[in-house]
Each structure stands twice: as C-alpha cells, then as structure tokens.
C-alpha cells in the first residue's frame, strides 16, 4: 500500500496512538463507495480498493506478534455506522489497546524499533512469530478488522512490542 493519509498524525493521544497513521488506498481508477448520511449503513469490505491489497515489510526484521482471527466487518460509511464504530471502539478500548487494531502484526526491525500493522484481513498473514523478513516481503493483506471505518492499513512505530 502506497498512499498517504490526509491527517498526520491521524490519531489522538490515547492508547499510545500519538504517532500512528492510517494509510487508505484510493486509486483514481477504482471508485471508493461514498459516505451517505443514513443509508446504506455500511458496505462489504470487498467494495473498497484497499481491501486485500498487499502489506509489505518496511525493513528487515523479525515477526514478534500476530493476531489473525478477528472478522472483517462492514464499513462505517453512514452517521449510524460511525456512531456504532465509536461505541464499539470505546468498549474495545476498555480492554487491551491492541484490540482496537483488529488483526495485527508486530515486526521488530533490525534498527531496534518495532513496527505495528493493524486492521489486517482475516486469514491473510503470510508470516508467523519468529519469521525473519526482508524489506518488501509481503506480510499480510489490508483488511477491515478492529476499530476501522473502512479498509485501510493502521501503521505505527513503537519503542517496544506492546507500546
């Protein structure tokens, strides 16, 4: 995925998200479903060009954590859908903050920094804990799991695997 976010950083200071960024994928050739105030409440993730896009390793490192069993849910592209997203996000935030990420992967880069990837597609992991990866290797696919309004990659650099 090679797109930039319109907001940098794209998160609040809660749950160690200060420097996280969301990377959507909106190529001009592929239409992205628009936001509608009331209907439809949401759309299937396959209607978004980001869904299923490859997520590549940004550097050489070792996989230190993965989660891959959470479902990909409908987009939240309406006012009721966004309200539901915020309510469910609040409930998820009461537990371990990584629950907000949905399916995720943490990579310890050779430079000593940890890279976190969130909202991955269920069943798409191409690596396992302990695997050594090199820059450019496909790790997984973009999905819509966790606290996500539409398919996109949640990416952040961290000091530790649980930061």
TrEMBL record:
<protein>
    <recommendedName>
        <fullName>M23ase beta-sheet core domain-containing protein</fullName>
    </recommendedName>
</protein>
<feature type="domain" description="M23ase beta-sheet core">
    <location>
        <begin position="88"/>
        <end position="159"/>
    </location>
</feature>
<dbReference type="InterPro" id="IPR016047">
    <property type="entry name" value="M23ase_b-sheet_dom"/>
</dbReference>
<dbReference type="GO" id="GO:0004222">
    <property type="term" value="F:metalloendopeptidase activity"/>
</dbReference>
<dbReference type="Pfam" id="PF01551">
    <property type="entry name" value="Peptidase_M23"/>
</dbReference>
<dbReference type="InterPro" id="IPR050570">
    <property type="entry name" value="Cell_wall_metabolism_enzyme"/>
</dbReference>
<dbReference type="InterPro" id="IPR011055">
    <property type="entry name" value="Dup_hybrid_motif"/>
</dbReference>
